[in-house]
Each structure stands twice: as structure tokens, then as C-alpha cells.
Design a protein that fits this description.
heterodimer, A: about 375 residues, alpha+beta, 4-stranded antiparallel sheet, 3-stranded mixed sheet, about 45% helix, B: about 400 residues, 13 helices, globular, binds flavin-adenine dinucleotide
Chain lengths: ~375, ~400
């Protein structure tokens, strides 16, 4: 039955993560964007929230909480409101841990999950994207060929967050390219595995505080036990739907950041003797931003809700993510426009949000609910 | 708890509305569009008896009960069910939906501004006898958007109000004023010097001497719906036909117009959704016949332009739908929804205008042809961006709310 109300628990999570985002992430965002480094104490503090350890089952020392995707979307939005780079950074270990929690074998769970239950941030990641203009999740070109008991991985990945510091990573590769999503497997590749080269840190237009890397896999051999889920494999389509929901939710957070900032500015800034917000040209931009934020958030929640019902949310998450990719660009662009020349200057955050928002059309698979 | 699922009873009910759309509206859609002022009386009769039957089934809840926030059980859903059924019926035909015999916007005004006794007295007729219509008249030749500029007057004269003025664009005006035992709610000022506060709603019964329909408009779309000009010339009505109180208070009067809009804007948004979905469904089926697959999940950079257009139409429609559901749900749960109602209306009006225009484009020469209904839906869709507050007026309302500005500060 249709309901738009958050549960009390969700409301509490939203409030506490929202306060952290506003009071601690936001002030760190600009310096991090300029320097390319996220302060370790901030990452440590985020770790305390248990975004990663919480998802680990109790028997491996985690919180054992199976929060619904809707709650995950709420968390992702709030973190994205704080800063997109920092949000993706602090959630990156989930890219490794979460598929193992959900789809790994018992041995894999026992072996790999404990590391996420300690007091300190445990870097881990996943390699999904590939450096091609027509990169497509349903047609990965990184391949995994069976060889004796194990697999041999070949190809190139990009936008791999925290690759240089991660203990281990999941590499997604096509075991059967003809099968689309169903032909993809995830492989656990330990740090320093032979045949894996990690490039210099990537340089991008936005997400400048997030350390991402290219990865070359040249005859990288892994054992049969490296395949997530063993012979059963993974449900890659579902994992990517979860990822799209998370990224789209973060996008809503970025939109909301730009909206609030522009709205407050427009009420203060005067031109021709009156606040610019009293002019329809500005007021309508702000109204449009507000509509798009609510519309996008509802699409994200609906996709998350579908995931929680256990059904196939491929279409909903895909459409929501693409919607956000477009509307986040438009909303953050409006954010810059409302500030006029001042929006173009790096003293204000709006230009950073515009650069970050453009990323949503490029990135996929680098966050999860 | 966030939930986007409609329960089976509701889905079943919607199937019934869908059948009405398919079997009673679509077959006469084109004819009613081509013969603008011809009345589909058979359709009126069937809808009238169908709605009598439906009111006995009653899937909704008792509209007369006020929501009680202390009791979370048995939530009200009347407004949500209304937007759902409206979408379903406008999928059939938006013009016919508007011409369906019922209390219409006149009923909405009575519900928003009338006393319990007046609701009973004026609305009872819609449950019995022959088909009847209700209408609401605010707009005048001199203004539309600025509904505080009402110049029609209501003057007290003994046991009567005397109404004088001209109203235009009254939906179902002809059916309500002259062709059935319905009524028109006329907004008039009792005190011009009081501005907005002096504007009050009056129920003018059908065929009241002094009320004349002088013109029925020819329109771009929704041609099955009559849009009338009504002249009120020394039109006498009983004193107790003023809805609510006659007292001119600062807070009174005009607030009722706004309260009506909070409830009707989600409905207009839902009308848009219905037309938009009609176009979307048509294009989907058409593409399927042409073996054009819509490949969800694939990189947008690998899709065809047609696929991208189609997906854009689909997600825009869904975004508008979720905003609409939320606005209706808020009314049901007793939350103030002016902002959200305007968001839904603004988004749906604009999105569906674009969706139907794109649908015609996608089918090329076929889309432009009057052999199929797409071009009609494009014409029908446009009205949703105009009435019940134009796109711009809804944007002003949204902007005022998010900026916390008064109508003086932003207009
Ligand atoms: C890189 C750069 C180089 C520049 N070089 C020069 C230079 O060489 N010399 C120089 O003198 N200046 C220069 N400028 C300044 C530039 O011309 C101004 O930034 C520009 O005129 C906008 O003024 P503002 O930034 O104060 O915005 P504001 O005037 O504060 O406007 C803010 C927003 O309100 C809108 N707005 C303002 N008034 C109205 C209204 N009446 N109705 C509707 N909307 C309104 C604007 O369109 C804008 O979106 C430069 C700016 C930049 C960013
Ligand atoms: C088919 C149909 C059925 C209708 N049914 C009814 C009915 O049942 N009862 C009834 O009372 N009325 C009805 N109307 C009238 C309808 O509500 C008005 O047409 C509508 O409110 C717009 O008013 P207008 O046509 O006078 O346009 P105007 O108010 O003249 O507006 C013209 C343009 O200016 C814009 N505009 C106006 N003010 C502003 C502003 N402050 N800032 C920015 N832009 C502005 C508008 O958005 C619009 O684009 C109906 C109209 C139609 C076409």
C-alpha cells in the first residue's frame, strides 16, 4: 500500500548521517577537492557509523544488519549531500564486502569479511568500469578464461577507487561474453597479484578528492576459489542495480546541496535593488530544481523498494540512474547560474558540484547500497 | 514505511476503470473529437449508471470523516484512489472524462467551502435520478491566472443574492447550467474594497433566471468537454446558496479557492498521466510490432535515438506519477500539500506535453495522421499545462514556498 513516510529508524539514520555530512564532510569537501586528499580522521569517523561493518553477518563479527536498500539510498543521499568524492571513498570497502556477504560462499565469507569488522578503515574495492567510450555493463570486455582449476583474467579497467591502497579487490569479468549480465563473474584478486598493474592515479574533471586508478590485467591467474559464489557465481545484474540505486541516491544529494546553497544565496544577493530570488528568472530555476530533486528521489526510492521486494529492479534502477545523470547536471548548472560570476569562482562550492555531477553519466558500479 | 505497491483490490478496481476506458471511451474518441459539440448521450447514461453501481462497491473510504492523526489504523486513501482512477479514465479519453456526468469541479468547491448541511443539500442529486453535471466558474474575460481579480459581484437584496458578471471557460458549463439538473459554483465578490477576502463561492442552480450560456468554445483538444461562457445578469439566488460564511474576514473566502486547488491539482496531474500513458503504451506496442527492442540496462551511448527517446518519455511519466501520488497521499494523511500539489501539476503538465509531442514525432507520418489517436492525445495533453493554474502559476507557488516569500514578494 502506497506510503511515502520513512520509518522512525530511517528518519533517525537520515538525521544522524545528514548532520555528519553537513557539519563534518561539507567543510572538508573543498580542501579535499583542491588537494586530492581526504583527511584520514574524517574517514575514520565515517567508519564508526558502520556503513561497511554493519552489513557483515554477526557470526563474522559484524553488525548483521540487513538494512533495506531504501535505507541504503537514504544514507547514500546524505553522504552525497556532504561530498560525492568522500561518499564514494568511505563506502568503497562495501564494493568488495557486500557482494561477498550477499553472494559469496561460506569459505569466502569466513576468509574475507572479518577484516571489515575492526576499528580502522579497511580499504577494499571493486573494478567494474572499462576505459572505452561505449563501455557497457552488459558487455564487459575484460575476460576470464577457464584454465585448469582456475581462471585467467585479461583486459583493462578504470575508475577503480582506492585500488592502490586496497587489500583486495573484486574484478568483474565476462566468463561468457554472449550471455550479457548473466555471463559476468566476480573474482577476488589480492593485492600485488601477478599480472595486475595499477596505473598512476587518474586525473578527472570532478571527483578530484577520490583516488581512482586504471588497472591492466595481463594473464592474471586466480584459483577456482577466487570466483565469488563458487560454481553458482553471482547475480551481476542485481549487483549493478544496487549500484545504480546508490549512485543515483548520491546524485540526489549533490542536487540538494546545489539547491540549498543557491536558494540561500539568491535570497541574500541583491541586483537592481532587490534580492535576485524575487525575480522569476531566478525563482523559476530554483522551483525547477526543487521539483527535479523530489522527482529523482522518488524514482530512486521506488527502485530501492523494488530491490527490497527481491524482484528484478534492472529497469527501475537504470532509468532512475539515467534520470539523475541528466537532472543532476541541470540542477548543479542552475546552481552555478544563480550565483552568476561568483558561481564560477572556486570560493563557492557550486562549480565543484557541477563538475562532480557531470560524472554520473560516466560512472557506474562504483558504489552500492 | 516507504511503499510503492498497490494492493490487489485496488488493482482490480483499476482494471474495471480500464475496461470502461477501452470499451466505452476509446470507441467514440475520434468521433467526439471530430464532431465537437455533438453530445454522446449514450455514453453519459452508461457512465451515470456505472458510477451509481461503483458507489455501492465503495473501495474508497468515507470522505466525510476527518483524518485522526492519533489513529494510524485504517488510513484514508480517497485522494490516492481518485488520482489512480483519473489516470485510468484519461488513458481512455481526457475529454470524455471531463464530460462525464458528476459533480465535477462544482462538487470540489462545495466539498472545500460548504457546510455539512450544504454538502448534503447540493450533492445529494448526484446519487439519484438522471445524469447531472456540476461546474465551477472563476475565470472571466478580464483575467485568468490572477483569480483574485474577480469582478463578478454578489449583492445582498432582501432574501436574495443578486449576481452580475461574465464567466468564461467553464468546464461542463453548458451541461451544468442548462442541460441537466446540475449547478454552477460562481465565484463573486461581496465587497470589492475587501480584495481577496471579499471573494465568495455561490451555488447557482441550473436554469436560474438571469443565468445564460452565451457561447461554447471551439478548442485545440479535449473537444468532448464543453467549455462555456456564462453571463449572469441580475441573477437572483437564495441567501443560503453562499458556500460557508458570508462574513468578510481577512483569512476567509479566498483560502477556499486555494484549498480547492490543493485537492484538484493532483487530479489534473493525474489526467495528464492518463493521456501520457496512452501515448506511451501506443508507442511501446508499435515499436514491438516493428521489432524495435527497448534495451534497458545497456549503456546509453550504445542505444538508438528511438530507445533513448522512449526511455526518457517513460521515466518522465513515472517521475510525474510519483509526485502525483505523493501529493494525493499527503491529502489523505492530513498533511498540508500546496507545495507538493503544485509540483505534481507543474511536472505532469510539462512532462506529458513533451511526451505526447515526442510520441507524434517518433511515429513520423503515421503519428501525424488522424487515422490514429496520437495526434489527438498531443492536443488533449496541452490543456493540463494550462488550467487549474498554468505552468507558470504553479512555478510561482512552488517558488514562494521554497523561498518563504509572500505573494507580494514574488508575483
Ligand atoms: C571569469 C570572469 C571574468 C570576468 N571578467 C570581467 C572583466 O574583465 N571586467 C568586469 O568588469 N567584470 C568581469 N566579470 C564579471 C561579470 O561580468 C559578472 O560576473 C556578471 O556580469 C554577473 O554579475 P554577478 O556575478 O555579480 O552576478 P549577479 O548580478 O549577482 O547575478 C546573479 C544571478 O542573478 C541573475 N540576475 C541578476 N539580475 C537579474 C534580473 N534583473 N532579472 C533576472 N535575473 C537577474 C543573473 O543572471 C545571475 O544568474 C568577470 C566574471 C568572471 C566569472
Ligand atoms: C478548456 C478549458 C477549461 C477551463 N475550465 C475552467 C473552469 O471550469 N472554470 C474556470 O473558472 N476556469 C476554467 N478555465 C480557465 C483556466 O483556468 C485559465 O485559462 C487559466 O487559469 C489561465 O488563465 P488565462 O487563460 O486568462 O491566461 P492568462 O492569465 O492571461 O495567462 C497568459 C499567460 O501568462 C502567464 N502568466 C500569467 N500571470 C503570470 C505571472 N504572474 N507570472 C508569469 N507568467 C504569468 C500564464 O502562465 C500564461 O502563460 C478553463 C480553461 C480552458 C482552456
Amino acid at each position: 500500500m502506497i506510503d511515502f513516510e520513512l520509518s522512525e529508524e530511517q528518519q533517525m539514520i537520515r538525521d544522524s548521517v545528514g548532520a555528519f555530512a553537513r557539519d563534518e564532510i561539507r567543510p572538508a569537501a573543498r580542501p579535499a577537492d583542491e588537494s586530492g586528499a581526504i583527511p584520514a580522521p574524517l574517514v575514520a569517523k565515517a567508519w564508526q557509523f558502520g556503513f561497511v561493518s554493519g552489513a557483515v553477518p554477526e557470526k563474522f563479527g559484524g553488525g548483521g544488519d540487513t538494512r533495506p536498500a531504501v535505507t541504503g539510498a537514504i544514507v547514500a543521499e546524505e553522504l552525497g549531500f556532504g561530498d560525492l568524492s568522500i561518499a564514494i571513498h568511505v563506502l568503497a570497502p562495501r564494493l568488495f564486502a557486500f557482494p561477498i556477504v550477499e553472494m559469496g560462499t561460506d569459505d569466502q565469507r569466513a576468509k574475507y569479511l572479518k577484516r571489515f569488522t575492526g576499528a580502522d578503515f579497511a580499504a577494499a574495492t571493486a573494478a567494474v568500469m572499462e576505459p572505452r567510450f561505449d563501455f557497457d555493463l552488459s558487455a564487459l570486455q575484460v575476460s576470464a578464461r577457464r584454465d585448469g582449476g582456475g581462471f585467467v583474467l585479461n583486459g583493462a579497467k578504470c575508475y577503480v577507487p582506492l585500488a592502490a591502497e586496497a587489500d583486495s579487490m573484486l574484478v568483474y569479468a565476462a566468463t561468457d561474453a554472449a550471455k550479457g549480465f548473466a555471463g559476468v563473474d566476480g573474482f577476488i584478486v589480492p593485492r600485488g597479484a601477478a599480472g595486475v598493474t595499477i596505473s598512476e592515479r587518474e586525473k578527472n574533471m570532478g571527483l578530484k578528492a577520490l583516488a581512482t586508478y586504471e588497472l591492466t590485467l595481463k594473464d592474471c591467474r586466480v584459483g577456482a576459489d577466487a570466483r565469488v559464489g563458487g560454481d553458482k557465481g553471482i547475480d551481476f545484474s542485481r549487483l549493478m542495480s544496487q549500484s545504480r540505486v546508490a549512485l543515483a541516491a548520491m546524485g540526489v544529494g549533490v542536487m540538494n546541496a546545489a539547491f540549498e546553497y543557491a536558494r540561500d544565496y539568491a535570497k541574500e544577493r541583491k541586483a537592481f535593488g532587490v534580492p535576485i530570488a524575487t525575480k522569476q528568472a531566478i525563482a523559476f530555476m530554483l522551483a525547477d530544481m526543487a521539483i527535479e530533486i523530489d522527482a529523482a528521489r522518488l524514482l530512486v526510492w521506488e527502485a530501492a523498494f523494488k530491490l527490497d521486494k527481491g524482484g528484478d529492479a534492472l529497469k527501475e534502477s537504470y532509468l532512475a540512474k539515467n534520470y539523475v545523470a541528466q537532472s543532476a547536471l541541470k540542477v548543479t548548472d542552475n546552481g552555478v547560474q544563480v550565483l552568476g560570476g561568483h558561481g564560477y569562482i572556486r570560493e563557492h562550492p557550486v562549480e565543484m558540484w557541477l563538475r562532480n555531477a557531470r560524472g554520473f553519466s560516466a560512472i557506474d558500479g562504483i558504489a552500492t547500497v | 514505511m516507504i511503499d510503492f505497491e498497490l494492493e490487489p483490490q485496488v488493482l482490480n478496481q483499476l482494471k474495471m476503470y480500464h475496461m470502461v476506458s477501452e470499451q466505452m471511451m476509446r470507441p467514440i474518441s475520434r468521433e467526439c473529437d471530430e464532431h465537437e459539440h455533438q453530445k454522446p448521450t449514450q455514453f453519459y447514461e452508461s457512465m451515470w449508471s456505472a458510477s451509481a453501481a461503483a458507489s455501492n462497491i465503495q473501495i474508497g473510504d468515507d470522505k466525510s470523516k476527518k483524518p485522526d492523526p492519533s489513529k494510524p489504523s485504517a488510513p484514508r486513501r480517497a485522494n490516492l484512489l481518485t488520482v489512480l482512477s483519473t489516470e485510468e479514465l484519461c488513458w481512455g479519453d481526457a475529454g470524455l472524462y471531463l464530460s462525464t456526468p458528476n459533480s465535477g469541479l462544482g462538487g470540489a468547491a462545495v466539498m472545500a467551502a460548504g457546510t455539512p448541511e450544504q454538502k448534503e443539500r447540493f450533492l445529494k442529486r448526484f446519487k439519484e435520478g438522471k445524469p447531472k453535471w456540476g461546474a465551477m466558474a472563476i475565470t472571466e474575460p478580464g483575467f485568468g491566472s490572477d483569480s483574485s481579480a474577480v469582478t463578478t459581484t454578489a449583492t445582498r437584496d432582501g432574501d436574495n443574492w443578486v449576481i452580475d458578471g461574465t464567466k468564461i471557460f467553464v468546464t461542463a458549463g453548458q451541461m451544468s447550467a442548462e442541460k441537466s439538473e446540475g449547478f454552477v459554483v460562481v465565484w463573486a465578490t461581496v465587497d470589492k474594497s475587501a480584495g481577496r477576502a471579499g471573494i465568495k463561492p455561490f451555488v447557482v442552480e441550473h436554469n436560474t433566471p438571469g443565468m445564460t450560456v452565451t457561447r461554447v468554445e471551439n478548442k485545440l483538444g479535449i473537444r468532448a468537454s464543453d467549455t462555456a461562457m456564462i453571463v449572469l445578469d441580475n441573477c437572483r439566488i437564495p441567501l443560503d446558496h453562499i458556500l460557508g460564511s458570508a462574513e468578510v474576514r481577512k483569512e476567509g473566502g479566498f483560502k477556499d479557492v486555494m484549498a480547492t486547488f490543493d485537492a484538484t491539482r493532483p487530479i489534473v496531474a493525474a489526467m495528464a498521466l492518463g493521456v501520457g500513458r496512452a501515448a506511451l503504451d501506443f508507442v511501446r506496442d508499435f515499436l514491438k510490432q516493428q521489432n524495435v527492442a527497448i534495451r534497458y540496462g545497456m549503456s546509453p551511448r550504445r542505444l538508438s535515438a528511438v530507445e533513448r527517446d522512449f526511455m526518457e518519455m517513460e521515466v518522465q511519466l513515472q517521475a510525474a506519477r510519483l509526485l502525483t501520488w505523493r501529493a494525493a497521499w499527503m491529502l489523505d494523511t492530513g498533511k498540508r500539500n500546496s507545495l507538493e500539489a503544485s509540483m505534481a501539476k507543474a511536472k505532469a503538465g510539462l512532462a506529458v506535453t513533451a511526451i505526447t509531442q515526442k510520441a507524434v514525432e517518433l511515429l513520423g507520418p503515421l503519428g501525424y495522421s488522424r487515422k490514429i489517436l496520437l495526434e489527438k492525445w498531443m492536443r488533449d495533453a496541452k490543456i493540463n499545462d494550462i488550467f487549474e493554474g498554468t505552468q507558470q502559476i504553479n512555478m510561482i507557488i512552488i517558488a514562494r514556498r521554497i523561498l518563504n516569500y509572500s505573494s507580494k514578494e514574488l508575483n
